[in-house]
Amino acid sequence: MKWREVCSTLGALVGVEPKGAAYVAQKVARTDERSPAERWAARKSLYRGGKVWNYLIRERCLPEAIVRAAVAKGCLRDGYHAAWFAHTDEQGAVCGAELRGPDTHICLGGTVKTLFRFQPGSVQPVRRLVICEAAIDALSFAALDQAYVPGTLYASTAGGMGPETIAAIQTHLAAMKALPEAVLVVATDDDDAGNAFADTLYRLADDAGVDFTRRLPPDRAKDFNQTLKNRAQAA
Does the pTM exceed 0.90? Predict the structure, then answer.
């Protein structure tokens, strides 16, 4: 129910009519009508010492090598006020972006959320799929990952999973089923929301016949990026 409907319903129970004009939702017109792919193509690469670079390296404590690798793989660009993390379709075309900055935590307008995908090293069939809730957590997990093997893909869903995200995960799992030692690594936050998120991923892996395992931050921080921050602070 909408807020005013709730007020009206509750008011009717006690004989009170809410005052004030009815609220009419108005959609703010988008100032940029270009597609996410066009806007992504217009973004520049990160550069050392830039605002977004410093945010990722200093504030988020991501290792420089991981940031450089993500830039080289074409899944991370400079949005000036925020880092842009690409979401791509099965053909690798950009269909949206996850924006993260000091004051930014949104998806680019018009985004179709699939998966942010980061595969370091040479391109190989995915046999180890690591799924996190946010792109920064996926890169953080990559930085902490001591069990890395060729064919590992670090991915994130940018929050809740819609049909396109689920379809993207199912496509990966279906291809992994025929590979030896294939595994889905669930690396969600260590909280109730993360547990519920993990349960959904368990079901997808079980339906696909792929082994799965859960990884939590080693210091039991809320998420893997917080673990990086804790280690940087301790150092």
Answer: no
